[in-house]
């Protein structure tokens, strides 16, 4: 079987690593990939910003299965185009991907289908923002409507700050077209939860849950990032809560999309806040999360190829997945300055030593390789991921591995999963 993965980050490296374990696999490609992925799959050049470039690659490879990693190709309609040409592809159509590509669409969809979420206002001008702020208490969450690589969310401590951030987004200076419309939201309090399900357009099957750490600094301080680490355990949600989330969030989304004429196939990532009022939807992603995919796939013991095909072919069931009872954790090592301006091209040392730590797999996110050495090539550089019988041991292993890796400017949070370890 010939499989193509689109993308170049830590999520894609985790997918490649897991796909390689399938006995059905014959050829594995990643486009464009990165330095670490190149050790496990053939990396091919592609411009993921243009549908023509992706389609040309598909025409050349004729893959038996394509897995779309990042959100941009989905928003461009890669699934529609590949499906039209008869190439099996995992992911939602361009219309269904609006659940992620437009926060205003997602919020209005949630409201229509009575799925719990924070109160909100959609604004196209600073005048609308100032008027809407009268209905909110500080702090206020300001979100860019469009795709912003995980950086389009600001928690403003005051209404004045919210107005200032919204004005910068709307002007295009902060995020370009992604901020042409903004969503103001009530700031929810509680623990965040990443709850992913596979869907075939009708049925859903949950994956194990995970918790992401968005802020750049320890203690959830500093600006939001694409994610600085994540963990997954068997008790992060109990069976009763998992069933509630399936029946009151995931399944109503899939049913609602179909009722509105837009079938949703692929993986639905429900970003939730577990509040005193119950679970509330913060956002949807229409693809695997990053870095949640790394610890989730570390716990998957069944064949990922089979599960992906079940979604495409309309036969998703809970039996598609078999999970380890172990805990897993991913710690993201980032370039100096991330999530702001950062330098690239810094040599990375200690990868072999880190990978030799028991239960550890180092997933590459922003790396390149030349003359036998690895170099930094992005903001989030590595996802150091560990699995163990209990969360405390997994955390210890991940940080033991992190300590062995060196590159100029490297930084990472020291408290990934710390609250969960303290509770256990």
UniProtKB/TrEMBL annotation:
Flavoprotein found in the keyword field: no
Domain spans labelled ATP-grasp: 107-313
One of the record's GO molecular function terms: phosphoribosylamine-glycine ligase activity
Cofactor(s) the protein needs: Mg(2+); Mn(2+)
Single biological process term from Gene Ontology: purine nucleobase biosynthetic process
Keyword Magnesium appears in the UniProt entry: no
Pfam families linked: GARS_A, GARS_C, GARS_N
Alphabetical list of InterPro entries matching this protein: ATP-grasp, ATP_grasp_subdomain_1, PreATP-grasp_dom_sf, PRibGlycinamid_synth_ATP-grasp, PRibGlycinamide_synth, PRibGlycinamide_synth_C-dom, PRibGlycinamide_synth_C_sf, PRibGlycinamide_synth_CS
Biochemical pathway: Purine metabolism; IMP biosynthesis via de novo pathway; N(1)-(5-phospho-D-ribosyl)glycinamide from 5-phospho-alpha-D-ribose 1-diphosphate: step 2/2
EC number: 6.3.4.13
Major enzyme class: ligase
Swiss-Prot/TrEMBL keywords: ATP-binding, Ligase, Nucleotide-binding, Purine biosynthesis
Reaction equations catalysed: 5-phospho-beta-D-ribosylamine + glycine + ATP = N(1)-(5-phospho-beta-D-ribosyl)glycinamide + ADP + phosphate + H(+)
Family: Belongs to the GARS family.
Alphabetical list of NCBIfam families matching this protein: purD (TIGR00877)
Protein name: Phosphoribosylamine--glycine ligase
Species of provenance: Candidatus Sulfotelmatobacter kueseliae
Taxonomic lineage: Bacteria, Pseudomonadati, Acidobacteriota, Terriglobia, Terriglobales
């Amino acid at each position: 079987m010939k499989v193509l993965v689109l993308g170049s980050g830590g999520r894609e490296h985790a997918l490649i690593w897991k796909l390689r374990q399938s006995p059905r696999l014959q050829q594995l490609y990643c486009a464009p990939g990165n330095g670490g992925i190149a050790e496990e799959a053939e990396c091919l050049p592609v411009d993921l910003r243009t549908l023509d470039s992706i389609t040309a690659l598909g025409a050349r490879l004729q893959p038996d299965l394509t897995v779309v990693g990042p959100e941009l190709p989905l928003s461009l309609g890669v699934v529609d185009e590949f499906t039209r040409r008869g190439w099996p592809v995992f992911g939602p159509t361009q219309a269904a991907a609006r659940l992620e590509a437009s926060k205003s669409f997602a919020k209005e969809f949630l409201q229509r289908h009575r799925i719990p979420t924070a109160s909100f206002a959609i604004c196209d001008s600073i005048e609308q923002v100032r008027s809407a702020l009268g209905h909110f208490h500080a702090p206020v969450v300001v979100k860019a409507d469009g795709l912003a690589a995980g950086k389009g969310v600001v928690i403003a401590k005051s209404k004045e700050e919210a107005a200032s951030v919204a004005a910068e987004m709307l002007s295009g200076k902060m995020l370009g077209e992604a901020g042409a419309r903004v969503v103001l939201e009530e700031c929810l309090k509680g623990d965040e939860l990443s709850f992913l399900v596979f869907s075939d357009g009708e049925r859903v099957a949950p994956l194990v849950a995970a918790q992401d750490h968005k802020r750049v600094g320890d203690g959830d301080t500093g600006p939001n990032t694409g994610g600085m680490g994540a963990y997954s355990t068997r008790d992060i949600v109990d069976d009763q809560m998992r069933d509630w989330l399936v029946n009151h969030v995931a399944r109503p989304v899939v049913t609602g999309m179909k009722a509105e004429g837009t079938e949703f196939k692929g993986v639905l990532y429900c970003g939730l806040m577990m509040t005193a009022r119950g679970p509330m939807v913060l956002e949807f992603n229409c693809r695997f999360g990053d870095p949640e995919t790394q610890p989730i796939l570390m716990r998957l013991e069944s064949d990922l190829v089979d599960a992906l095909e079940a979604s495409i072919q309309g036969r998703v069931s809970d039996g598609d997945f078999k999970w380890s009872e172990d805990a897993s954790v991913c710690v993201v090592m980032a370039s100096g300055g991330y999530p702001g301006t950062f330098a690239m091209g810094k040599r990375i040392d200690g990868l072999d030593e880190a990978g030799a730590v028991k239960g550890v797999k180092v997933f590459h996110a922003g790396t390149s390789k030349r003359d036998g050495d690895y170099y930094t090539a992005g903001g989030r550089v590595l996802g150091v991921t560990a699995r163990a019988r209990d969360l405390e041991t997994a955390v210890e292993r991940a940080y033991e591995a992190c300590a062995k890796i060196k590159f100029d400017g490297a930084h990472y949070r020291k408290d990934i999963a710390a609250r969960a370890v303290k509770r256990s």
